[in-house]
Specification:
The complex is a heterodimer of chains A (297) and B (244). Chain A contains 11 helices and 2 strands. Chain A is mostly helical and 297 residues long. Chain A has one domain. In chain A, helix 10 crosses helix 11 (268-280). The relative contact order of chain A is 0.21. Chain B has one domain (25-52, 61-235): 3-Layer(aba) Sandwich (Rossmann fold), CATH 3.40.50. Chain B has helices spanning 41-49, 94-101, 108-118, 120-124, 135-147, 165-177, 192-198, 216-220, 223-235, and strands spanning 3-12, 15-25, 30-34, 56-61, 64-65, 79-82, 153-157, 184-189, 201-206, 209-215. The longest helix of chain B has 13 residues, at 135-147. Chain B is globular. In chain B, 47% of the residues are buried. The chains are: A mainly alpha (297), B alpha/beta (244).
Chain lengths: 297, 244
């Protein structure tokens, strides 16, 4: 295999991981723009999605298990908003972030009790771990295509929902100006619940498709949250398409760093990106300097 | 009687902004609510729609007690507030702003046609991002968005604020035309001259209390109104808030 092929291999693996970070980042943005909460428990939705699907897959066919997991985790997301954040209005951004860190720990510990510390995974959606497809000289697992395809469809569907449906428009109206949205008769509390549900469901879906490749483990959520956060910041907080670009960029950077540096530095790339962006360009690459200042809710 | 407010008190924290105000608006009327900046006019409007929780007093819309309801219920009571500073959804298109305004109206597309007939400029610009409209167009959009909910009672908060004189004229002409559409209007304004021209009746508010009420024609000649709101306007037409 030549250097070019190797580079392509790294690029593809970076894009695959990056698409998961993009999902986390989109989840951040959805919740942040609707509620002003920076939800650091975002990675737990991915973990929960994988866990629930693995369990369900013992009893029902894989597609049903995935659908069931997405549904369950969506409900978990809604419940979180309804039981916690709805009861905590008028708290500072920092307070709410700390609450989400608490939520993240609770979900992890609960998962440890419900399941255990074993690493699990869903079966490959098509083929198995050794089957591969040759694409432009690089060998890729069909699961990678599942990941990229599913996430692309989900992101496009989400975009269409926000852009062309009444409920989606109402959600955007709530982010743009909650008071004016209320005056139009929109129940903004329900919209906030919906934003948590959507972002949890999207995370769960990503957690399912990635499970055969990266495995599912009760502790996998926190690092994903941090990398997704780096991606969201990089793309400009509140900017959904920026989140996609940010996610892919973090994923590729990570893959490149793995190829150049010892594996122990695996997670360094994301943190370097996060710190650099925060120091140099806190509004992100695609964000406007004035557009998305952290709001005090 | 469409709107009846009795002894309404409300405010922020320990600051009482409205101290026992009473007023009423009959169906089909245009009623002005005049007063200087900080008189409590905006707070009163906010309490009417539920953006501000009344401390005490009574708000009845079409006979139904509405105080204490969340703000998103006001549309179901056929009441819509066009808030101060327009508050359009700047990053959404004109069309989307209108559709969101008709969130509870199943005939929102038909209603949008009516709004377009009223404001042809909005039809021309329906695909444009709302934040790029001129100040006057944004005000038209804010009013059009409110009409999308088919309100019986339209509450307007300082619709002429920050607009060029020609635009101010146009906005007041539109408000006068609400009568033809059968929409009742409670108009909060600092521009007393223009308000008294379009209104049937008016109230004057000072430091949280209604100090004067009467027919618009009579009020225009009342010494207090002339001195405080009309007299000075000739010397100081900048629209700057005047504190007594």
């Amino acid at each position: 295999m030549g250097t070019g092929d190797l580079a392509l291999q790294y690029l593809l693996s970076g894009i695959t991981k990056g698409s998961i970070y993009a999902v986390v980042a989109i989840g951040f943005n959805l919740i942040y723009s609707a509620t002003g909460v920076l939800n650091l428990a975002q990675g737990e939705f991915i973990m929960l999605g994988g866990m629930v699907a693995v369990t369900l897959a013992h009893y029902v066919p894989l597609p049903v298990a995935v659908a069931g997991a997405v549904l369950v985790v969506t409900l978990v997301g809604c419940l979180l908003e309804w039981s916690l954040f709805r009861r905590l209005p008028n708290h500072s951004v920092l307070h709410l972030i700390i609450v989400t860190i608490g939520v993240s720990i609770v979900i992890q510990e609960a998962s440890l009790h419900i399941w255990d510390e074993k690493v699990r995974s869903l079966p490959y959606f098509t083929g198995n771990e050794v089957s591969s497809i040759h694409l432009l000289g690089a060998a890729i697992s069909p699961q990678v295509l599942w990941v990229l395809g599913t996430i692309t469809v989900a992101v496009v569907a989400l975009h269409g929902f926000l852009k062309y449906t009444l409920t989606g428009r109402a959600m955007r109206a709530c982010s743009a100006n909650p008071e004016a949205a209320m005056l139009a008769g929109i129940n903004i509390r329900n919209m906030r619940t919906l934003s948590f549900g959507l972002s949890a469901g999207l995370g769960a879906l990503a957690g399912c498709v990635i499970s055969p490749i990266t495995m599912t483990h009760y502790e996998m959520g926190a690092p994903l949250a941090i990398k997704g956060f780096a991606a969201a910041i990089l793309g400009g907080l509140g900017n959904p398409m920026g989140a996609v670009a940010g996610g892919l960029l973090v994923g590729v950077l990570e893959a490149v760093s793995v190829s150049r540096m010892p594996a122990a530095y695996n997670d360094v790339a994301a943190f370097v990106v996060l710190l650099l962006v925060l120091f140099v360009r806190p509004h992100g690459i695609f964000g406007l300097p004035s557009g998305q200042a952290v709001r005090e809710h | 009687m469409l709107l009846q407010v009795k002894n309404l008190r409300c405010g922020y924290g320990s600051l009482e902004a409205v101290r026992g105000a009473s007023l009423h608006v009959c169906t089909g009327e245009i009623v002005g609510l005049l007063g200087a900046n900080g008189a409590g006019k905006t707070s009163l409007l906010k309490a009417l729609v539920g953006l501000l929780l009344p401390w005490s007093g009574e708000v009845r819309i079409a006979g139904r007690e509405t105080s204490g309801q969340p703000a998103w219920r006001c549309v179901s009571n056929s009441t819509v507030l066009v808030p101060e500073g327009k508050m359009i959804f700047a990053e959404m298109s004109v069309r989307e702003n209108l559709l969101v305004g008709g969130y509870h109206n199943p005939d929102r597309r038909m209603q949008m046609e009516l709004v377009f007939e009223r404001f042809p400029r909005l039809r021309e610009r329906q695909g444009q991002v709302a934040g790029t409209l001129s100040g006057g167009e944004q005000q038209m959009l804010a009013i059009g968005r409110a009409l999308m909910a088919r309100p019986m009672l339209l509450l307007l908060d300082e619709p002429s604020m920050g607009l060029a004189p020609l635009m101010v004229k146009e906005v007041f002409a539109e408000i006068f035309r609400m009568k033809d559409a059968g929409v009742t209007v409670l108009l909060v304004e600092q521009n007393a001259t223009a308000t008294l021209k379009v209104a049937d009746r008016a109230y004057v508010m000072e430091t949280g209390e209604i100090v004067l009420e009467g027919d618009a024609g009579d009020l225009a000649h009342h010494p207090l109104v002339k001195r405080a709101y009309l007299g000075q306007r000739d010397e100081d037409d900048s629209g700057q808030p005047r504190q007594k």
